[in-house]
Amino acid sequence: MVNGSDPVRASSEVAASNDSSVANRAARYRHILLPFDASAVSRRAFDEALRLARERGARLELFNVFDPATHVSGFEPARQLVDELLPRARTRALADLEAAAQSARAAGVECDVCLVDGDVAELPDAIVHRASQMGADLVVMGTHGRTGVDRFMLGSIAEQLLRRASVPVLLVRTAGDEA
Question: Does residue 41 sit within a domain?
Answer without folding.
Answer: yes
